[in-house]
Design brief:
243 residues, 17% strand, Transferase(Phosphotransferase), domain 1, globular, 5-stranded antiparallel sheet, 7 helices, two-stranded antiparallel ribbon, single chain, 9 strands
Length: 243
């Protein structure tokens, strides 16, 4: 993965090997597909590490032809960042001795589902409104680019200490060229709504559920991200399709 657009470690940034050797601060995900955890370096900076856990032999074979999920994730993070979307950059990528691929990203904050579950959004209406608008803007921009994100869910957005929303795990993105917008937009928005509602139900608070006003605010911001026709209607130009 040496051809990936990743930054080089500097005197101010740690070597990836140093981060991989650090003790786990918190494990966010562990299943047959991947493991995600955070570490803290000697300067107090936090990092998120994702390691793919399926068959190392299969990972090596798929990586040789450039089709490993980690390679797709690096590619799509770079594409979306180039399009000026708020995507957490990938700091380093590689593989261990057995062939398991890994990715390292800087820590930006807790994911959106956690913010919903612990009531932080419900307790701060201004922040809730701002986060909703940011989500709508991200959705609108991705759709304008004709990109289908099959993992457009609450766990794949993080909110930093300043209240800025960032997209993570863009490996689920695919070019939507030739696919009707409605075919993938509904799937993306349904998944985001379902996972946000699921997080709200886990909180046990009725005011954590997405409200009608939340949905209206989201859709207004989403459509405002699209270009306008002379008569004021929004449209999605096919000239911006991604393969």
């Amino acid at each position: 993965m040496s051809d990936s657009p990743l930054p080089e470690p500097t005197a101010e940034l740690p070597e990836p090997a140093e981060l991989l050797a650090l003790p786990e601060a918190k494990v966010f995900k562990q299943d047959r597909r991947s493991r995600v955890w955070s570490v803290e370096d000697g300067s107090g900076r936090r990092w998120a590490i994702k390691r793919f856990e399926h068959s190392p032999l299969r990972q090596r074979l798929v990586a040789k032809v450039g089709q490993h999920p980690a390679q797709r994730e690096v590619k799509w993070h770079a594409k979306l960042i180039a399009a000026e979307l708020p995507v957490v950059p990938i700091f380093a990528a590689g593989h261990d001795a057995s062939g398991r691929q890994w990715l390292i990203t800087p820590w930006r904050g807790d994911d959106l589902a956690e913010w919903i579950q612990d009531g932080r959004l419900a307790d701060d209406p201004a922040l809730r409104h701002d986060v909703t608008r940011q989500l709508g803007a991200i959705a609108g921009r991705i759709m304008q680019m004709r990109v289908f994100n099959r993992d457009f869910k609450a766990r794949n957005f993080v909110v930093d200490e300043q209240g800025k929303v960032w997209l993570i795990d863009a490996g689920g993105c695919r070019g939507g060229k030739g696919t009707p917008l409605l075919a993938f937009a509904l799937r993306m928005l349904t998944l985001l709504n379902r996972t946000a509602r699921g997080a709200a139900k886990e909180s046990g608070r009725a005011d954590a559920l997405p409200s009608r006003t939340d949905r209206q605010r989201f859709f207004r911001t989403m459509t405002a991200a699209w270009p306008s026709l002379p008569d004021g209607m929004q449209h999605l130009p096919r000239s911006q399709e991604f393969d």
